[in-house]
Amino acid sequence: MNKELEHSFVTQLEENQNIVHKICRLYTNDSEAHNDLFQEITIQLWRAYPKFRGDSKFSTWMYRVALNTAITLYRKSKRSIKTQDFEGVSFKISSEPYDDTTEQHLKLMYSAVKNLNDIDKALVFLYLEDKNYKEISETLGITEVNARVKMNRIKEKLRTILNP
Fold this sequence. Notes:
This protein is mainly alpha-helical. It contains seven helices and no strands.
């Protein structure tokens, strides 16, 4: 691979690495597994980069490769890769009175999302990242209509889980 291509890859990876970290947090439960998955996704991005034609934004392409890598490893894994355990996460609390209502709602939401299958988790993740259905469909390799239908069904599942 030539130096120009290598420099372009490294620059774009550095600019968009938070995407990979977010996906790693979604599909792993500890820092060791997070680092392993981050490394594997980076390797897959590097291998696939020469084929990146620029038909979509780099970040959209990166989501797709990263999610496919995470999902593939998740499915191949004999042990299940758990999503982030929010019970052990410590939060910074200011000296002002602290209202943890939002935090509690987030914990409930993440707990509910853990019950979804890996593809549905990916769809929710992209939806919560404010991706439009066109970007979601491109990233997951499904039609826009299918993405909308799946998201509506997922919302219903989540409502059922959160409001039994």
